[in-house]
Design brief:
Blueprint lengths: L25 E5 L3 H13 L3 E5 L2 H11 L3 E5 L7 H10 L7 E6 L4 H9 L4 E4 L4 H48 L5 E4 L2 E8 L7 E9 L2 E9 L4 H13 L2 H7 L5 H11 L9 E9 L4 E7 L4 E4 L5 E4 L17 E4 L5 E5 L15 H12 L4 H16 L8 E8 L2
Parallel strand pairs: 1-2, 1-3, 3-4, 4-5
Antiparallel strand pairs: 6-7, 7-16, 8-9, 9-10, 10-11, 11-14, 12-13, 12-15, 15-16
Helix pairs in contact: 2-3, 9-10
Length: 408
């Protein structure tokens, strides 16, 4: 059997797979000296490579763009465009900058090698190099080229998968937003406006209304811990539980505390430790009262017509931590011109560039300053002020704000 020599080809499949064929790797040789170019081309072909020749730097650039070889061997000394200038042109071209370049030169002084590397060469090959060194340097360049191309292909594959994932997330986000209530008159004399800004294409915050009767209304804002698809799906599942018919079946009551107590049993911690926080309120127009209960949530903000601000919050655990937890309902009077704001903690727990949080205090001050301007204006300007504080449009957490105005 014939032994494999150091110059045996590397571009074809081995004898162990006789029916498999791999296209030979391509080398571009750029040299204005015919004798040197032809000799190197012949040696590379014996190694099993496909070889393209170019007689000067400009022709070499054209061939590089056209053929996209795995490795380019370029002579240093050439008229019009020398090897270092060739390298600089390659590194300035976005479509070529990852090309592997082996500089062939008689210059072997450290400062000359440093210049060539600085101007874009990946390695050097002396014109006086032995056939063994030529083989080794070319194979090293080919290995590097293979790694670069694999990385480029992997990056492109990741980009394509990311685009597909973004499209799926956006589609899911549109579905989640379709679950949100339509703004406008939700009871005679009661109007609602909202804003929703998920931190990603899909968020875990969800809010809605529960119409008990013509003069009695439930409202809630829930937040699933985490971001992305999983919390959004969990929020959608919880929203099904919070529908009027489901609550009457599972709870048998429209009392906010009773609703959260039952939800605490229905939605335990997930295996990965995720949970829900929620504020649930009931507006009774007959009694002019607002009842509410919270579970691990920052609560809601009641802005009275007089200008007084009341935070509706209770210190207690999020849902799912302890199935024996009972949640208590609190009740407040409500009158004409009062406004209720249900909001996620993403609206105030975010930092400015300095690291300082906007906080509930600034949120409260903003809403007070906007006073009795139209509800749409208060919602829009509150979000805008938060954006100004942090210095950019994208919030680090989901932001939800629902405003309800009582006119009678």
């Amino acid at each position: 059997m014939k032994r494999e020599t150091p110059e045996s080809g590397t571009g074809y499949a081995s004898r162990t797979t006789p029916h498999a064929f791999v296209a030979p790797q391509t080398v571009l040789v750029v040299d204005d000296e015919p004798t040197a170019r032809i000799a190197l081309t012949a040696r590379l072909k014996r190694l099993g490579y496909r070889v393209i020749e170019a007689v000067d730097g400009k022709a070499g650039l054209d061939a590089l763009r056209r053929e996209q070889p795995d490795l380019t061997i370029v002579d240093w000394m050439m008229p019009e465009m020398d090897g270092p200038s060739f390298c600089e042109c390659v590194r300035q071209d976005p479509e070529l900058l990852t090309s592997q370049i082996l500089m062939m030169t008689g210059h072997d002084q450290p400062e000359q090698i440093a210049e060539g590397l600085a101007r874009g060469a990946d390695d050097f090959l002396s014109k006086a190099a032995s056939k063994y060194e030529i083989t080794a340097r070319v194979q090293t360049g080919m290995r590097a080229a293979t790694l670069v191309r694999r990385l480029r292909d992997a990056t492109e594959e990741i980009r394509q998968k990311q685009e597909a994932l973004e499209q799926e997330l956006q589609s899911a986000a549109r579905y989640v937003e379709s679950l949100l209530p339509q703004p406008g008159i939700i009871l005679p004399g009661v109007r609602m406006v909202h804003a929703y800004r998920p931190s990603l294409a899909l968020g875990g915050d969800l809010f809605n209304i529960v119409p008990w009767s013509d003069d009695f209304l439930g409202l809630y804002l829930l937040d699933a811990s985490g971001h992305g698809v999983s919390p959004a799906l969990r929020s959608s599942s919880f929203a099904t539980f919070l529908r009027r018919d489901s609550l009457l079946r599972h709870v048998g009551s429209n009392d906010p505390g009773a609703i959260l107590t039952e939800a605490n049993k229905q939605f335990p911690l997930t295996e990965t430790g995720h949970y829900f926080t929620i504020v649930f309120a009931s507006l009774d127009l007959r009694c002019h009262t607002l009842s509410y209960a919270t579970a691990g949530h920052g609560g809601a903000l009641l802005h009275r017509r007089s200008g007084e601000v009341c935070w509706m919050a209770q210190p207690n655990l999020p849902l799912g931590f302890d199935s024996s937890t009972s949640y208590v309902t609190a009740t407040l009077p409500i009158g004409p011109g009062d406004r209720l704001y249900l909001l996620s903690d993403g609206l105030y727990e975010f930092p400015a560039a300095s690291g300082e949080l906007w906080g509930q205090g600034r949120l409260e001050t903003t809403i007070q300053a906007l006073g009795q301007q139209p509800l749409e204006t208060v919602i829009t300007e509150t979000i805008a002020e938060a954006v100004r504080w942090q210095g950019h449009e994208q919030f680090p957490d989901d932001v939800a704000l629902m405003g309800v105005e009582v006119a009678i």
